[in-house]
Amino acid sequence: MKFLILNGPNLNLLGTRETSIYGNQDFSSFFEELKSNFPQFQLDYFQSNIEGEIINKLHEVGFSFDGIILNAGAYTHTSVAIGDAVKAITTPVVEVHISNTFSRETFRHQSYISPNAKGVIIGFGLDSYTLALKSFL
């Protein structure tokens, strides 16, 4: 089975960015742990700070992969286009967030992705990605 983890803006700074919210671990080391914990799956990873690149990646894999784990970062709350891209593809998408977005600023309570996602996992740190992957089993 093939899965893509797709991260949006500023998630390339995990491990150094607001560690009180996002933790101390960088995503590349976490991704290596995830791959070793799920050797039966092909796991791919893509991160972009650019909205159009995220949409292009959804279009690229959205008809051939078994699942997509999407943390669109702040685009979650602003991008109708990413929400539309999730709606347009056939591969199921699980929306994830490292922090509990509902305990943060009010604008983070709205998601343009959630209505089109298979499910949403929020607030379990990097374990949100593990839980999302397990949801496909």
Automatic annotation (TrEMBL):
A biological process from GO: amino acid biosynthetic process
One Pfam family, short name: DHquinase_II
Annotated active site: Y22 (proton acceptor), H97 (proton donor)
Site (Transition state stabilizer) residue list: R17
EC nos: 4.2.1.10
Substrates-to-products reaction catalysed: 3-dehydroquinate = 3-dehydroshikimate + H2O
Keywords from the named record: Amino-acid biosynthesis, Aromatic amino acid biosynthesis, Lyase
Listed pathway(s): Metabolic intermediate biosynthesis; chorismate biosynthesis; chorismate from D-erythrose 4-phosphate and phosphoenolpyruvate: step 3/7
Binding site for substrate: N71, H77, D84, I98, S99, R108
Class of the enzyme per the UniProt entry, highest EC level: lyase
Molecular function via GO: 3-dehydroquinate dehydratase activity
Chain's role: Catalyzes a trans-dehydration via an enolate intermediate.
Family, as annotated: Belongs to the type-II 3-dehydroquinase family.
Identification of the protein by name: 3-dehydroquinate dehydratase
Protein species of origin: Flavobacterium indicum (strain DSM 17447 / CIP 109464 / GPTSA100-9)
